[in-house]
TrEMBL record:
Protein's name in the database: Ubiquinol oxidase
Family label: Belongs to the alternative oxidase family.
The enzyme's E.C. designation: 1.10.3.11
Originating organism: Cynara cardunculus var. scolymus
A single GO BP: alternative respiration
Domain of life: Eukaryota
Length: 306
């Protein structure tokens, strides 16, 4: 390697380190780090205030700022948080399982089983740690599927039957699960590094799987969601048995799922588990449509749950 190459390599590694350092070693919240660029607000980020309240305050600050600039036409003092609140359907069947029959099902089931055991071994009974990392992965399939269907709709000048919206709703819902859990647990630097690596692998692997076989990709997600339901059932059982101490529900969860003010983590886990069961059914349904030789757009998507 000549001197020019060595200098270029050193500069590249310094640049990469500068990019990665805040992601891997930051101990402040994302919202806190944004506060300096969002305006002159003096929000005490190190207090026990929930992210929901912080976001609502930022939304108000932004609204006032936009009003000052003359760009906000709304007369009312809109304090809406930047998410769509809804009430989860907790009556959904938590035990439903799609029996693997075809080769497509068996491959998908095998992949999920192979991923399940090392994950359970790694986290054991650390339910909140498990949930944080699980949700960083769970929010990927909906976004990838929605993005690819979006691109297909543009290319073919055709409707998607509501499936783009349904999958993007799923991705957003999963991201809100993550936003809820990071209110009570901040991942350590090695967990952030793990998330960084897993996202790089999983996003690309799922993207390729969806391109190659959407019916396989949806079946994999269906089985991943079944495992998510099982994991949250274990989490809930440990909270109910007192193995794990219950705690007040994060403010963001109370706002997002329209929960009573005195809700606890048990209530939060119940609504999140119901969401996962809904994702399970949606993805198995999508795979069933395609396994039957049809396109998703031929069957209206179950939208509006969230
Ligand atoms: Fe989730
Ligand atoms: Fe899910």
């Amino acid at each position: 390697m000549n001197r020019n190459h060595a200098v270029a390599a050193t500069k590249m590694s310094q640049l990469l380190l500068m990019q990665l350092r805040p992601r891997l070693f930051s101990t402040t919240s994302h919202f806190a780090s944004r506060s300096s660029i969002m305006g002159p607000s003096k929000i005490p980020m190190d207090t026990t205030i929930g992210t929901a309240r912080v976001l609502a305050m930022h939304a108000r600050n932004w609204s006032a700022h936009a009003s000052d600039l003359g760009t906000n036409k709304k007369e009312d003092n809109d304090q809406k948080a930047p998410w769509e609140a809804y009430e989860a359907d907790t009556s959904i069947d938590m035990k439903k399982h799609h029996k693997p029959v075809t080769w497509n099902d068996k491959i998908a089931f095998g992949i999920v089983q192979a991923l399940k055991y090392p994950t359970h071994f790694y986290f054991q009974k650390k339910h909140i740690h498990h949930a944080v990392l699980l949700e960083t992965v769970a929010a990927v399939p909906g976004m990838v599927g929605g993005m690819l269907l979006h691109a297909k709709s543009l290319r073919r000048f055709e409707q998607s039957g509501g499936w783009i919206k349904a999958l993007l709703e799923e991705a957003e819902n999963e991201r809100m699960h993550l936003m809820t859990f990071i209110d009570v647990y901040r991942p350590k630097w090695h967990e952030r590094a793990l998330v960084f690596a897993v996202q790089g692998v999983f996003f690309n692997a799922y993207f390729l799987a969806y391109l190659a076989s959407p019916k396989l990709a949806h079946r994999i997600t269906g089985y991943l969601e079944e495992e998510a339901v099982n994991s949250y059932t274990e989490f809930l059982n440990d909270l109910e048995k007192g193995v794990m101490e219950d705690m007040p529900a994060p403010a963001i969860a109370i706002d997002y799922w329209c929960l009573p003010q005195n809700s606890t983590m048990k209530d939060v886990v119940r609504v999140i588990r119901a969401d996962e069961a809904h994702h399970r059914d949606l993805n198995h349904y999508a795979s069933d449509i395609q396994c039957g030789g049809h396109e998703l757009k031929e069957y209206p998507a179950p939208i509006g749950y969230h």
